[in-house]
Amino acid sequence: xxxxxxxxxxxxxxxxLVSYVELYSDSPExxxxxxxxxxxxxxxxxxxxxxxxxxxxxxxxxxxxxIITRPFEYHHCVYHSNKLHKHFWILFSSSGNEYLFxxxxxxxxxxxxxxxxxxxxxxxxxxxCHKMTExxxxxxxxxxxxxxxxNILQNADIVTNAEGNYPPDITYAIDYISRHFSELISVGDIxxxxxVSVNTLERHFQQILNISPLAYIKKKRLANATKLLSxxxxxxxxxxxxxxxxxxxxxxxxxxTYGTTPLKYKKSLERT
Length: 272
Hints:
Largest sheet: 6 strands, antiparallel
Oligomer: single chain
Number of helices: 10
Shape: globular
Structural class: alpha+beta
Radius of gyration: 20 Å
Distance between the termini: 46 Å
Number of strands: 9
């Protein structure tokens, strides 16, 4: 008699947050203007006139489209009108369990973030997400539904060549900032590299990304600094290597964004 013995690796405890969200661009609770965190995220679009920025890509979205990000990938949602934005938002901690989530980790940062499924699978995914938002007392069902979602995502197709028709200076500037944010660059430098005036570049950023070039640079720097803190760098090192020229301004901006100082944030990570 021949038998095969399976072995399960240890799964570290992790948190999952599943939310069904309805927002307008001017909703007070809208949090998508700045989005940097240490968890993996799954975003599923149901409606709305929106795009998603992930690192140096801009993805126009339609109902059923999926955006995935892993810890510290810079991303935010852009509203093009005040049309009601319905979506699912799933956050889960992955530290120590990265091997379970190839869809998130077996790719380069800022690549393969935009996913799609056939209509039938999309319907199954949305139905599953609705069930995940229900009050469920069975831990087995919670885990079952979560890993079923992960399995569906593993079979999703990566959307390629689906970026919008944006002015060349915007796409060039985003890519340029991604490569040079840690340097002492100015909006004037970026506009010159993109071959447009500062006014034109700032106008396009506001029209398309709902953010100024300077604010975008600061958020990219903050995302990198947060990542460095999670990797054990000191606050001073994270600030300097991310392009912040003023240490006190970095601390102030960090606290304004996260509600805590960089040092307290770093210590909280060390305790987990």
